[in-house]
């Protein structure tokens, strides 16, 4: 395996059309941050590049809907995303944007280089556009039925359900994703294409022969594309928002967002190096030096762009290195349902940071523990609570708290000396001496879930050790023995503060503050002398706190509210029944009644017994099978309702029902009796 001098790490540019959610975090940003923090701890030369993707069609549609400029839209979400990342501890060296002047010039120059080298094909062909607005549509903005698997909502370039590569022409019943009511028409237009087929043999050799170590989902998706003939891919689009195509005859066209966005990694690196050349050197060494390792962290929907199209762009340019690895994750679902920004079915990072202050590491831990590294995985709030309470609190936090509190109690917070080691001590020490090697091997293979497990095993070892040794009992008979026990516990605690640093940076920092560890080295991990004898520790505090059911219930209620809002927005009434003539309708006698009493019918789960003031001396009794919708029938007393008065009486559960109360079933399955008169009327009044 080649030894590199430096590493360039990129994380997929989030689209500045909304916030960042837990699917993005689990798929891209948390694993990328773990990896970068790990390399920094090993004192490796590394940069971490991020930024907002601000071009494309969706931002223009949002701007139009809100009546503001596109720049105002991307400014809003760029600032929201950047602020969320900073508060969450995603440690970018730079987080810039694709609307910057540096990026515009860099992307334009990159395209111009390919154009002047003859690497682009000028093709005129008919493309779909919006019949109403006349706007040409990108492949991702055209949806329809997949011709391969029949899934609805397949994109014009790919079906996310079966993974088939598609073109808009292959979709069954293609529609405009952003304006479903607008028709699609085809019109001829000229654009510049990247001839992927020209590089197909090179791609096969580079990926299929040279990178068999890539994750199966990445390798497999690349292979499925490379097993077919690669077609030219448009690098320009007919849009008015984006980077103008820098060649003659390209008026009204911009660089395709999938051409300009990955170049953002490079332009953002240039911006970083220009700001601090003494620290970071030149951008060229990070992107054009063969001694640099390039790693892209992405979600699985970006595999083709980062493994085939972007590498071909760089190969065609001629000066750039290729990615050494593209550790793409699968998707994370939420409460057994696919995360969807359009349905607002997500846990948004900026909202989480407000709802769960100081709990960044809890979410980082849970997302890593459930990382969809090899298959789609699921996030539930109950599982989130379980990981926090049963692992972070009960295992890691419990061990740390016992070790520090007992040291405070017996030795005034001073690290005691280590005496003779018994077998129980030696066994515990032997168990964690290889933790550094194990964590490194896993992180070097991008196995973040297993690496975090290895770190948590340290806490399990510590908990088991302190429970077995019982220093609180031994103290009465052998204080010297307690010195050795707590010495071992404190060294284990110091090891935990280092082992968890890439995964849980906030709590690791707090723990080191309690341990008065002003400095630390990754090389110390697995050693037994991190804290010197006689060192005065600081005041201990709980590292993690239990999350109560009420906190989780509030989050579940927020999702339930979202689900109900979606159901309301998507409500479609049942089809109207066949017409009836007016004479038939006139036969129904619908009246207004006042509910004077309402109770459940004994031995019946369904029936409520109403007594209705219908304007007559005695009123009437009506039975209605709606008990399941009203836990407390008394809420109906005093309401005016509509009822059919001329149904023939019928017996139910030994009671006679003299009519039928009218009610309506709502979109969410709830039922409500009709009581929406705009003012009170006399019981017995005719409705018609």
Describe the protein in words.
Helices cover 41% and strands 16% of the residues. By secondary structure, the protein is α+β, with helices and mostly antiparallel strands. The chain has four domains: 6-111 and 260-338, Rossmann fold (3-Layer(aba) Sandwich), CATH 3.40.50.620; 118-237, Beta Complex (Methionyl-trna Synthetase, domain 2); 380-572, Isoleucyl-tRNA Synthetase, Domain 1 (Orthogonal Bundle), CATH 1.10.730; 582-687, OB fold (Dihydrolipoamide Acetyltransferase, E2P) (Beta Barrel), CATH 2.40.50.140. Strands 16, 17, 18, 19, 22 and 25 form a six-stranded antiparallel sheet that branches. A four-stranded parallel sheet has the order 3-2-1-12, with helices on both faces. A three-stranded antiparallel sheet has the order 4-8-9. Helix 4 packs across helix 7 (257-275) and helix 14 (423-432) runs antiparallel to helix 16 (448-469). The longest helix has 31 residues, at 381-411. It is flat, with a radius of gyration of 33 Å. It starts with 5 loop residues before the first strand and ends with a strand. The mean pLDDT is 94.
CATH class of the largest domain: Mainly Alpha
Q: Round the mean pLDDT to the nearest integer and report it.
A: 94
From the 3D coordinates, which CATH architecture of the largest domain would you assign?
A: Orthogonal Bundle
How many beta strands in the DSSP annotation? 25
Low-confidence stretches: none
Figure out the total of helices.
21
How many domains, in number, for the residues?
4
Radius of gyration: 33 Å
Strand content: 15-25%
**What is the terminal-to-terminal distance?**
85 Å
Subunit arrangement of the protein: single chain
Would you tell me the structural class of the helices and strands? Answer: alpha+beta
What about the largest sheet?
Answer: 6 strands, antiparallel
The helix content is 40-55%
The CATH superfamily of the largest domain is Isoleucyl-tRNA Synthetase, Domain 1
């Amino acid at each position: 395996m080649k030894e590199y001098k430096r590493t360039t790490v990129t994380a997929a540019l989030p689209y500045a059309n909304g916030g960042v959610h837990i699917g993005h975090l689990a798929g891209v940003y948390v694993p990328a941050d773990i990896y970068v923090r790990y390399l920094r701890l090993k004192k490796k030369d590394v940069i971490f590049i991020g930024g907002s993707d601000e071009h494309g069609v969706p931002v223009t549609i949002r701007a139009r809907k809100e009546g503001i400029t596109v720049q105002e839209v991307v400014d809003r979400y760029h600032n929201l995303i950047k602020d969320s990342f900073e508060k969450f501890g995603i440690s970018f060296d730079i987080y810039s944007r694709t609307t910057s002047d540096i990026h515009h010039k860099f992307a334009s120059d990159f395209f111009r280089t390919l154009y002047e080298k003859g690497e682009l094909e000028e093709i005129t062909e008919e493309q779909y556009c919006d019949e109403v607005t006349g706007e040409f549509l990108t492949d991702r903005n055209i949806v329809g039925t997949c011709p391969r698997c029949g899934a609805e909502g397949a994109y014009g370039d790919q079906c996310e359900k079966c993974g088939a590569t598609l073109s808009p022409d292959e979709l069954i019943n293609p529609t405009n994703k952003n304006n479903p009511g607008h028709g699609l028409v085809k019109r001829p237009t000229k654009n510049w294409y990247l001839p992927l087929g020209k590089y197909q043999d090179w791609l096969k050799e580079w990926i299929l022969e040279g990178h068999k170590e890539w994750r199966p989902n990445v390798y497999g998706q690349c292979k499925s594309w490379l097993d077919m003939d690669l077609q030219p891919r448009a690098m320009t689009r007919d849009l008015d928002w984006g980077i103008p195509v820098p060649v003659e005859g390209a008026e009204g066209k911009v660089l395709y967002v999938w051409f300009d966005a990955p170049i953002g990694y490079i332009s953002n690196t240039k911006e970083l190096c220009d700001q601090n050349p003494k620290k970071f050197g030149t951008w060229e060494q990070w992107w054009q030096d063969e001694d640099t390792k390039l790693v892209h962290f992405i979600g699985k929907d970006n595999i083709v762009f980062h493994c085939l199209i972007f590498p071909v762009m760089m190969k065609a340019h001629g000066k750039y290195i290729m990615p050494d690895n593209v550790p793409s994750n699968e998707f994370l679902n939420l409460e057994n349902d696919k995360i969807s920004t359009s349905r607002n079915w997500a846990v948004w990072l900026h909202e989480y940071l407000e709802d769960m202050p100081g709990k960044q590491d809890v979410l980082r831990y849970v997302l890593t523990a459930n990382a969809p590294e090899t298959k789609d995985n699921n996030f539930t709030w109950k599982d989130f609570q379980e990981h926090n309470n049963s692992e972070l609190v009960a295992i890691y936090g419990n061990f740390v708290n016992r070790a520090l509190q007992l040291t405070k109690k017996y030795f005034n917070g001073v690290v005691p000396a280590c005496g003779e080691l018994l077998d129980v001590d030696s066994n515990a020490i032997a168990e964690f001496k290889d933790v550094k090697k194990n964590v490194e091997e896993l992180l070097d293979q991008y196995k973040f879930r297993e690496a975090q497990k290895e770190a948590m095993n340290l806490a399990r070892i510590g908990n088991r050790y302190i429970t077995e040794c019982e220093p609180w009992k031994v103290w009465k008979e052998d204080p010297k023995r307690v010195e050795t026990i707590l010495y071992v516990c404190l060294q284990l605690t110091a090891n935990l503060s280092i082992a968890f640093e890439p995964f849980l940076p906030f709590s690791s920092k707090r723990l080191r503050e309690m341990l008065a560890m002003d400095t630390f080295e990754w090389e110390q991990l697995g050693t037994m002398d991190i804290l010197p004898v006689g060192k005065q520790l600081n005041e201990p505090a709980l590292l993690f706190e239990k999350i109560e059911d009420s906190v989780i219930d509030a989050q579940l209620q927020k999702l339930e509210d979202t689900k109900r809002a979606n159901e309301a927005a998507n409500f479609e009434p049942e089809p109207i029944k066949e017409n009836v003539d007016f004479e038939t309708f006139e036969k129904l006698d619908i009246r207004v009644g006042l509910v004077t009493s309402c109770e459940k019918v004994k031995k019946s789960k369904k029936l409520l017994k109403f007594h209705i003031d219908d304007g007559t001396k005695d009123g009437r009794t009506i039975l209605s099978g709606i008990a399941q919708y009203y836990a407390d029938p008394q809420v109906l007393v005093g309401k005016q309702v509509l009822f059919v008065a001329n149904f023939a009486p019928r017996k139910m559960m030994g009671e006679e029902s003299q009519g039928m109360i009218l009610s309506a079933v709502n979109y969410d399955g709830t039922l409500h009796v009709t009581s929406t008169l705009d003012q009170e009327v006399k019981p017995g009044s005719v409705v018609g």
